[in-house]
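As described in the Methods, two query proteins were run sequentially through the folding procedure within a single session, without resetting any intermediate state between them. The first query and its resulting structure tokens are shown here.
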Amino acid sequence: MTIRHLQIFVAVADCGKMRAAAERLHISQPSVSQAVRELESYYNIKLFERLSQRIYITETGKKLLPCFQEKILLPSPRHIIDSFETMEGFINDTSSGNVIRVGGSVSVGTRLLPPMIKSLENEVPDVDVCVIVDNTAAIEGKIQRSELDIAVVELVKKDIYDDELVLVVGPEHELFNHPGIKLKELTKHALISRESGSVERNQFEQFLLEHDIKMKNKWSCSNTETIKKAVLNGEGIAILSRMVIEKEIAAGEVRVLNVENTRMKRKIKLIYHKNKYISQSMKQFIDICTDGRY
């Protein structure tokens, strides 16, 4: 590797585009691309992700960048040697470690991600896991922008879990002891739901629209534990994922309303960008999820 390779790495990181880096260094774009490939191949690391015609610096690249931004253009041989030694040491330190950024929708993050992460840590003891929980639309965006490596959500891609949405009430609610109600009777009651943009809310609102049913949304919340407490206090009917409320159902703390024609099945999915580099930790996590080892 030469000092030129490192200059090109810094330029691409600073500019965010191969073409802009080439113009800054007064070389051709293919030369920039080739230098980055050679640097990645030589050290067997990934410095940039090329997703949807854009370039994103990886976590490894972000950690390396400060080593060179100030030193790389200095003419002193000592600075050059120091920079190479710093990079070699960093790469040796990180080559044995594994970093994976995992996302999950709110329901999934509450119920499925903890055992999945535990299984990954059991199989890959040195893994460094960063978990982000948000609504599905936000998680999708983070996947597209390479802010996450992989995510578990209620969308398309790999099926890993069967779930359904259920309407639940607490013991203080007037419908707690009802054996069953008609669909149109829902219009008489207040609804507690997830925030706008969540898959649970979108799916249920579409269901109501298809059946010409209107329910008053009493209030919404992004935190499922808060929604559970509201249900226990008898504040309304909540629409929730069965997997996040199953313990309370089994304990008799809440009941699933038996409403005619309200089966709302859904699949929990594993998603990642189609052009994503699959690291060993990421491959292990995919295997754990798809094989049900959690």
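Immediately afterward, the second query was submitted; its sequence and tokens are:
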Amino acid sequence: MEFDTRLFEFTEDEKAELRARHAASQAMLSPYACRDDEGIREFTQRYQDPDVYLGRPCFVVDVEKIVHNPFYSRCADKTQVFSLVRNDDITRRSFHLQVVSRVGRTIGMALGLNLDLIEAIAVGHDLGHTPFGHQGEDYLSDLYHASTGRYFNHNVHSVRLLKTIARTNLCLQTYNGILTHCGEKTFLEYRPAPCPDFSALNELIESCYVDQSNIRDLRPSTLEGCVVRISDIIAYLGKDRQDAARIKLLDTGDYDESPLVGKLNHQIIQNITRNIIKNSLGHDYLAMDEEVFAAIDAMRRENYEKIYKSDEVAGRITFVQPMMERMFMTFVDDIRMGREESPIFRHYLDQPMLRYPYSFELEFRPEDIAVDYIASMTDDYFVDLYAFLFPDDPLNGEVRYKNYF
């Protein structure tokens, strides 16, 4: 069937109007914003035409490449904090991505930054997360390190997933923002650090594989990346408390109240966001008042002690570690022996959802592929797959969902 290309091509007048509209929107950005024409792609053949971004600017293309990727859909059944809880009101990984994007766009709009770049980084920043949240991440990293001497980290894997596995060919600035988003360490100021090309990006990635502590020193190369980094903290700080209340782990009265920031999620988001905007207007960095910084730090520590280290979070899924180890060793052996009936072939390597199938000519280690497969799993898929592979293992009996009724 032939298509009438006139249906999909802009006339010269339409092109002129689109160019003028885009130029006007870019002219309104802050001098410290990353503009669309600064976007750098690793593979440029499809982007030689100067009109290729008409109607879909550079970082809009990145957003669409991420949200239409099947790995994005899987975030709907990945733990944010609370695992094996059947409750439609608590946060899953996909909703967290949306909240980070919303908070980031609010800050970015006030500061005159590139909202499309903020959205691209935000919706992609946690795609590499494992099932069962940060506990699953720690378990998988221990297995990977014991086998290869390298570390697994979800931010690094998010870039690997989008860049190497799915081959989305995103812009350098998007990959960099995803890599450097980790908000486990807060700062009074967030200043961009240069990352001029893909060689520099690859060096940062490799440094995190060989030394996990390097992640703490990562800094985004754009102010937009800095916005996503602090938005990640703002998004989970109060929301995790809200979710803890919804599953009746804690109530709002169980926390110390910051008179500056507040107890409730909407208060936390509004107050921190306003303070950052107030202290960052007209600057090439993000900043907040010392009192707000201290309040954020205190709230994060309290969340760790009262939520993340609680039996409801840390104690409920300890069985995942031996399950993950047995699956990891099984899949490594399946790859080495070429057992094509294994789920790692049937459900992963042979699936068309991988835009470009793995090529063993690229010398991926079996351990790398096993990690990629496990990291891609949703919580429920992990549980069902283990029961399928090892139906007689007593560990299956330790899986207990907190049901609706």
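Residues 321-398 form one domain. We note this only descriptively and draw no conclusion about the first query from it.
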